[in-house]
Amino acid sequence: MKLPENKKERTQIIVLLVIVAALAGYGLFLGVSRALMAPRRERRARIAVLERQIREARPVVNHARGDEQRNREILEQIREYSKRHLLEPQLGGNLLLGATEQVQTWFQSAGLPMPTIAEHGGRSGRSAIEPARGGDPVRDLVWSYSVRLAFKAGLHDIANVLRAIETSDPFVTVTALTVSADRRPTTDALPQHDVSFVVQWPIWRDDDFRKELESITP
Amino acid sequence: MNLRIDLILESEQRSASVLSLKLMRRLALIAVPVLLGLIVVFSVLGTMRMGMRATDLETQWRILEPQRDAALERSRQVARHRAILHALESWPETKLTLHEQLAVIMAIVPETIQITQFNYVQTISHAGRDRARETNFLISGRARGSDATESRTIIERLEDLFRTTEPFATLVKSVTMSGRADTSEDALETDRRFDIECEYHPRPFKP
């Protein structure tokens, strides 16, 4: 095929051919580039995700380098508190035995006979520190154990036994006290009031955490 | 009349123009594939380079991810144990010593007052997520003055003492008193019954 001799017609045909060629080339380019670009796009996205994850993870790993030592130190402190102040179960989970021993010591030092003692509140005296929301590590592990003591005594004896209790251990708490005045007619004898109070110790909810503490080597 | 004789055969004829169909055909057949080929080659090379980078990052992440998970777990453990330690440390710090307060009560209650009942309660409770020890006590009794007005004054003075005497002045948030005539069998006409309730400021645990 020959181009026409007429310059104007020749130019028109050339322009037309160029346009057609350009469109065909662009179409071909689009098809090829799409086929090639799709995997590039996926990899680019994957690279961006990985770079972000790595960038965010590095400071977390660096910061946690000291955590093992910090955790050990905290657990050692908790272990000291546990050994000295938390009421330990005896003979397969019995807390009342240990509590009764302490009550006996207090009342002896105050010169009073042994009171009536009974577990108070919760299940067998055990209560979660209440109320609390789920997932609270303290509530999950640190509970309280309470006993109610009942006896008769004068005001000074009451004050003495309270002093013996509260100075024996800073963790032992008198959480309730009821004193009802002696209604007997006035005599030479000192009034003996009806006294009831609740003594509370912190305890571990169960033995798992205590065993975890004991397994820590200094 | 014009006459034109072509002595050159049609197949030997050449166009006078620079751009001929033949040239354009040649250009199309050579340049376009070359161009396309270059585009494909560069794309493939670029994709391969990205692939290698992605593989390298995947390897790094495979090593780093378990380290990150272990670090997060360790941080959670530290936070958990620290919360327990703070609770244990706060236990004695938030406690109120009752025997000292009882000694003060015995000192400020005058002889004209007979305490008939004393109730003291201390609990650990929450306001939101903050743990605190809350305490209150109730003293019930009877005042015996020379007349009803004096009995009332004795009670009011006692109420005032709970507001102003240490440690109650610092520890107690509010003092509420209610009084009434004493109608019990052994009461005198001038006797008055009272209840004084003291509510303490909450003592928060360490967060």
3D architecture notes:
The complex is a heterodimer of chains A (218) and B (207). By secondary structure, chain A is an alpha+beta fold. In chain A, 54% of the residues lie in helices and 18% in strands. Chain A contains six helices and five strands; from the N terminus they run H-H-H-E-E-H-E-H-E-E-H. In chain A, strands 1, 2, 3, 4 and 5 form a five-stranded antiparallel β-sheet that branches. In chain A, helix 3 (96-109) crosses helix 5. Chain A starts with 6 loop residues before the first helix and ends with a helix. Chain B has 207 residues and is an alpha+beta fold. In chain B, strands 1, 2, 3, 4 and 5 form a five-stranded antiparallel β-sheet that branches. Chain B is rod-shaped, with a radius of gyration of 50 Å. In chain B, strand 1 and strand 2 form a beta hairpin. Chain B contains four helices and five strands; from the N terminus they run ααββααβββ. In chain B, 51% of the residues lie in helices and 25% in strands.
Primary descriptors:
heterodimer; A: 218 residues; alpha+beta; five-stranded antiparallel beta sheet; 6 helices; 54% helix; 18% strand; rod-shaped; B: 207 residues; 4 helices; 5 strands; 51% helix
Q: In summary, what is this structure?
A:
Chain A is α+β, with helices and mostly antiparallel strands.
Beta-strand segment tally of chain A: 5
Secondary structural class of chain B: alpha+beta
Write the element-wise H/E pattern of chain A from the N-terminal end onward. HHHEEHEHEEH
Tell how many strands the DSSP assignment of chain B holds: 5
What is the helix tally of chain A? Answer: 6
Provide mean pLDDT of chain A, rounded.
Answer: 84
Largest interface: A-B, 73 and 70 residues
**Helix and strand run of chain B:** HHEEHHEEE
Determine the strand fraction of chain B and express it as a percent band: 25-35%
Classify the secondary structure makeup of chain A into a structural class: alpha+beta
- Describe the oligomeric state of these chains in a short phrase: heterodimer
Summarize model confidence as the mean pLDDT of chain B: 86
Distance between the termini of chain A: 98 Å
Number of helices of chain B: 4
Radius of gyration of chain A: 41 Å
Give the biggest beta sheet of chain A.
Answer: 5 strands, antiparallel
Major sheet of chain B: 5 strands, antiparallel
Helix content of chain B: 40-55%
CA(first)-CA(last) distance of chain B: 117 Å
